[in-house]
Amino acid sequence: MRGSARERLEELSKELVELGGVGLEALAHALPDSLRYDRRRELPEDAMGGSPLAGALLAFGSHAVPTIAWLLESSRPDARHLACLVAASLPDPRLSLPLGRVLLDPDPPCRQAALRALHSAPALASAELREALREASADRASHLQIRLSALEALRVIRDEGSLSLWIELLADPERELARAAHRSLRTLTAHDLGSLRAPWLRWEAALGQAARIEWLIDALGDSRPDLRRLAGEELCRGGLPEPLDRELREALDEGIEASEDACRRAQRSLRRWWSGQPVA
Prior knowledge:
By secondary structure, the chain is an all-alpha fold. The protein folds into three domains: 1-114, no CATH class; 125-209, no CATH class; 214-280, no CATH class. It contains 17 helices and no strands.
């Protein structure tokens, strides 16, 4: 956006904020028609990339939350899609359940936008939303797509509370859902015990009460390179002290032949750190 256009938009945002509720109402009705992308073809990086008016809405801060919630429940897919982008930039817990409804939206691009918002703004994953998604994925009376969408949302937020549910879903008669449950277990734990419930139930009995970070540290010693890499990436994603993060990233950067020894060294460092021992 050129300087003059940006400055004019900033001035417009200030004017709308000064108008208060009237300005918010005007924005709510204008936003869906201001999209500069086709939701069926692309997903902008952020709200500002989706509409020049998104910045004006964000300028209202928390006062915009009811308006964003209203847009998330709009009958217009374009409005719901853009509202997901805005919610990611203003992750207020009050948007959690409205966003949750879009996670189960009949429109695939809207579902994708809601997933991206949930991934980029973990604060949106409230306890109420997690519980609602668990119920939706377990409900055999629901349409398969709704169950799959709920399960995928839980996978995206790495919901540890879904461990037992996903193990049970391995035996679901809907095989597509069972495969999705297996994928989710693999993502959550960085272990792969196959698609049958029995091995996973034994694993849960032995390690299910441990913290997720312990599952991931344990997986760094797996003989399979793809699981070691998955565990390392998930550990780095969660945030580690700088020396440990650096050591682990260096292990991941090594070739497959060398990575097993490097990952085991990183594993030993992480175990010392997690047990409270000093790390060099």
